[in-house]
Amino acid sequence: MKKLILLFIFAAALCPIAMPAQQAATAAAPAARSLPFSPGLRLGYTLYVSGHLGITSAPSPGAAPITPEQEATLVLASVEKTLKDAGMSMDDLVYVEIYCTDLSLYATFNKVYAAKFHTPYPARDFIGVKDLLFGNHFEVMGIAVRQAAAKKKLSGPPTP
Predict the structure, then answer these.
(1) Which of 15, 31, 80, 102 keeps 20 to 30 A from 160, CA to CA?
(2) What pLDDT shows up at residue 118?
């Protein structure tokens, strides 16, 4: 029985190797298309979502800066767009990392975040950082697995 399990694990580990990584098709802004990164990279059923910022186009002169809540909405919309372009949804996210320059914005971000997800929520980290590009407050990245909607919330510590 142990040999059969080991054979299954070995075969499962080899499956992604046979599948080439694919950049998630996305309608990135023209300036972003020339940068050396992908908004998301899919390998088999898994999508690795690069760090997304809550930005639109360059602000017009005299335009009011966006609020942290608006920025949180934009950053999650950007992640959602990358997932959609890869044939996935926010329900497929299994892990999310949020980088934030001001930890007092935790509740503000959670308000927007909670509206985009339902239980079981993805595993996540909320990490304080000194700075983010373009003066942003938030950057979000994650890992999605197709059909992760069937994911289960753990109710306690793992059993040996």
Answers:
(1) 15
(2) 85
Q: What pLDDT is recorded for position 16?
A: 44
Q: Which token pair is 82?
A: 């990358």
Domain ranges of the chain: 23-56+65-150
Pairing outcome for strands 93-100 and 123-128: parallel
**Per-residue confidence at 131, pLDDT binned at 50, 70, 90?**
very high
pTM above 0.85, yes or no: no
Longest dimension (CA), the chain: 70
CATH number given to 23-56+65-150: 3.30.1330.40
C-alpha distances in Å from residue 109, one per residue of 3, 28, 102, 126: 47, 24, 11, 10
**CA separation for the pair 7, 122 (Å, rounded):** 30
